Amino acid sequence: MAGRILGKTLATVSLSVALAYVTVKSSGFRSIPECRNSFSSCGFHLNSNIMSASNGAKGNSHNKARTSPYPGSKVQRSQVPNEKVGWLVEWQDYNPVEYTALSVLAGPRWADPQIRNPAGRTGLVGRGLLGRWGPNHAADPIITRWKRDKSGNKITHPISGKNILQFVAIKRKDCGEWAIPGGMVDPGEKISATLKREFGEEALNSLQKSSAEKRKLEEQLHKLFSQEHLVIYKGYVDDPRNTDNAWMETEAVNYHDETGEIMDNLTLEAGDDAGKVKWVDISDKLKLYASHSQFIKLVAEKRDAHWSEDSETDCHGL
């Protein structure tokens, strides 16, 4: 029984290390395994202690994985002394040799694809602030209503003659830019849940509400987010956090309060990552974070609302 448990543990550790260390020679970058909180969460602290205990060795048994040349090549590894094998040992000068066999770079079915930004080079490798290699998924709820006068009548733009649409915008704390409220999709979370959660947290300060206030808020949000909606955009986002190996992808969804009655019962209050929140008139004069201006333009087009004072460029593509 103990042998089977140990075998499973070693297999898990080996898989974690293999997945964590990815090298892509042709794209010119090297990645070193990282963990969000600590290395212990990745299971790296188990390696030498468990293996030594299993074979009775007193020293480090992580030896074959440090031999040179690498199998099937003449590549020599950087030397790693016993006392610096563990990931918990600080070693700022660690500079491992980068190597991926040509047979792997050829892209056989059994090999992972090379992780490259689909839009092209960014001038930065690694993950930056993004937690995942490859796509990092977000959701952006675009909440809109018609701008109305004191009598409740829709206000039209004097030049374009189209009704003016408004959306809920937040001012981001990290960069000070105005943006659509939204955020990262949690593991296992549905996009619809992320859209509602992020809007509540950033535009209504739901995280700081009492239990009674949260229940009342949830009722109003359910009315808003259970109605018909428009998926405005789904895919790659031109985001300042993107690198050659990690990038943002989002699903921007428009929930429109046609009469304004639902949002009239909700008080905007900035929370979480938002410093400010307000209703903003939609037009081509907007300067928003990342690709958000493009998403807002698509909403104006779908709702046949005012966008530009130039009729020739008013909502005719990006």
UniProtKB/TrEMBL annotation:
GO terms for cellular component: mitochondrion. Residues 146-302 form the Nudix hydrolase domain. InterPro entries: NUDIX_hydrolase-like_dom_sf, NUDIX_hydrolase_dom, NUDT9. GO terms for molecular function: ADP-ribose diphosphatase activity. Residues 1-20 form the signal peptide. Pfam families: NUDIX, NUDT9_N. It comes from the Eukaryota. The keyword Ribosomal protein does not apply. CDD domains: NUDIX_ADPRase_Nudt9. SUPFAM superfamilies: Nudix (SSF55811). It catalyses: ADP-D-ribose + H2O = D-ribose 5-phosphate + AMP + 2 H(+). Its EC number is 3.6.1.13. Keywords: Coiled coil, Signal. Residues 200-227 form a coiled coil. Gene3D superfamilies: Nucleoside Triphosphate Pyrophosphohydrolase. Residues 55-77 are annotated as: Disordered. Hydrolyzes ADP-ribose (ADPR) to AMP and ribose 5'-phosphate. Monomer. Interacts with GLOD4. Belongs to the Nudix hydrolase family. NudF subfamily. This is ADP-ribose pyrophosphatase, mitochondrial.
